[in-house]
Amino acid sequence: AQRVTQPEKLLSVFKGAPVELKCNYSYSGSPELFWYVQYSRQRLQLLLRHISRESIKGFTADLNKGETSFHLKKPFAQEEDSAMYYCALSQSGGSNYKLTFGKGTLLTVNP
Amino acid sequence: DGGITQSPKYLFRKEGQNVTLSCEQNLNHDAMYWYRQDPGQGLRLIYYSQIVNDFQKGDIAEGYSVSREKKESFPLTVTSAQKNPTAFYLCASSLGTYNNEQFFGPGTRLTVL
What share of chain B is helix, strand, coil (3-state, %, to 5)? Predict the structure, then answer.
């Protein structure tokens, strides 16, 4: 069975401070990892996926297979980063497309 | 915000009634999904469909039913057998064919009175 754990329900930082949202997973196969974000009154949307290796809105995430982690990081948080963040896992390269989501972390960036 | 639409935005139901939530997409995606979002629970998969006329149960399918008669449409019926139906329901779709980035609709909030 595949599982995604986000240990922090709530995370509060000040503007300009570094932020790290933690995500750990368990999966026996080769995983594909995603971060989704939901801003207030907006749809859930993809922030980034590990295979693209992009930096989106200043966020990066590195897949660490040894530690089974996919933590989301940003060196300098902005107030507009305040949102709910979900880590998600899928089978890589397979024909089963379903995602397993973590329970989410609500990030608040204070001025 | 085109692509995936859900209706209605808010839905009220009396206990014991079945209700159907609509989900339509014009992205030509093969795969569609229904999730339930509860505070502190994240997103939990109810049903998913990888192709027309085929669907599979997700993690919390009891008390729900779906159909996939058209590629564009994936309606979800919340039956009276669902013990705790009050929730926010999200529909999503993905291209499939080894591309599993999911695109989400705006959601329907169902309240059972």
Answer: 0, 60, 40
